[in-house]
Amino acid sequence: MPTTSISANTIISGLPSKLHVTLNGVHSELGLLDKGSEIVIIREDIWRKTNAPQNQQIHMRMQTANGGAQDMGGCVEMLEIDVKGIKTWAHAYIIPDAPYRLLLGRPWQKLVHLSKSEDMEHVYVTI
């Protein structure tokens, strides 16, 4: 199977890696690539822009990077995440007041076979 390469927008070294995505076919967003996260997280105001249904039966409590904990407000099951025409889907957990808009964790990165390379000025993302 051939590999499709997508060169994401260039990112200045030292800043978090971000990827332009379209959510549910209706909302463009920058997704933060976080290899330390074990889930996909979407902030509540961004979720509302996707018009995607929320499953309120799924509840989770997340341990934050600073050692705290935060309750999640449900799950968007099979949220469409489109990267330059390549459609993928993932469960995204909703957080009312996350410091980021969309966090693309390891499960999504593994699903799309994401790889990154860097030079002194740029981060290149391939899926």
Question: Please, could you describe this protein's structure?
Answer:
With 127 residues, this protein is mainly β. It is built from two helices and ten strands, in the order E-E-E-H-E-E-E-E-E-H-E-E. A six-stranded mixed beta barrel has the order 1-2-8-3-7-6. The two termini are 13 Å apart.
Mean pLDDT figure = 83
Helix content: 10-25%
% residues in beta strands: 35-45%
Tell me about the largest β-sheet.
Answer: 6 strands, mixed, barrel
Compute the number of strand runs. Answer: 10
Weakly predicted, low-confidence segments: 1-5, 7-14
- Strand order, largest beta sheet: 1-2-8-3-7-6
Q: Order of SSEs, N→C?
A: EEEHEEEEEHEE
Which secondary-structure class do the elements indicate? mainly beta
Q: Please tell me what the overall shape is.
A: globular
Per DSSP, the total helix count is: 2
Terminal residue distance: 13 Å
| Quaternary organisation of the protein chains | single chain
* Radius of gyration over all CA atoms, rounded: 14 Å
Summarize the helices and strands and which ones pair or pack.
Layout: E1 18-23, E2 27-33, E3 40-43, H1 44-50, E4 61-63, E5 69-71, E6 75-83, E7 86-95, E8 102-104, H2 106-111, E9 115-118, E10 123-126
Parallel strand pairs: 2-8, 3-7
Antiparallel strand pairs: 1-2, 1-6, 3-8, 4-5, 6-7, 9-10
Which key terms come to mind for this protein?
six-stranded mixed beta barrel, two-stranded antiparallel sheet, 10 strands, 127 residues, mainly beta, globular
